[in-house]
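I am writing to request your help with a piece of structural work I have in hand. I am sending you one protein, given as its amino acid sequence and as whole-number tokens for its backbone shapes. Kindly check, if you would, that the fold set down in the tokens agrees with what the sequence suggests. You will find the record immediately after this paragraph:
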Amino acid sequence: MAPRKGKEKKEEQVISLGPQVAEGENVFGVCHIFASFNDTFVHVTDLSGKETICRVTGGMKVKADRDESSPYAAMLAAQDVAQRCKELGITALHIKLRATGGNSGSNKQALKVAGLTVLAAVLIAGQAFTAYMMYSQKDRLNSLESHSARLEELGRRATVVRSPMKMALPMNSLPLFLDESTTGDKKASTPAPKKELSRCLQEAAGLVEIQLPDFRPRCDENGDYAAQQCWDLAKKCWCVDKSGAILQDTMVDGPAQCG
């Protein structure tokens, strides 16, 4: 009789949706962000711009079937785009921003709100992305960096501890000085402990880098984050806890009701 054939083990094949690349090689894509007054569009294509990889809008992330131009909806859309890019093996993005508006003020405001919010959402998503911002605000960023460096230098100078200088006394005043020291109350002079700046105070003084330009957090009397934080450049306000974490669904136009 012929010997029985053993069961052949089937090897499971790992299906990869992205291109075949070498280790350490980046796969580039182009992220087109269009911020209008009604909605925010996050559209990722290949380098040629002809093939669509992923497209999510802010209106797709709200419960009602409508357009949505809020920064919170843009963050949710950016998280979906980042997750989809990770599944397809895209490791680097060129980010291009475009906004509508009849004048430069409204155009610039929509561009910053949408672009910076989406960039922050890509970083929060935890993906290994190399984001390349392509816009014409280099002069403003350079001035912000120089201003932050100046504030940091002033902060270092203020914290330098200088040793007190000894005062020269004539010899005939030394006995009187000794008599007063023996009759008076002796109090141990203990130096006041140096109070370290909290995270909120460091960000407010410009000692710590912040992702949002022209934003300085508000701190209470204890150095903690105030319940309401506002970004005057975007005219947005939101609520935070003592550690500065943003409370969900609290970002609104104008003052926020933080209780």
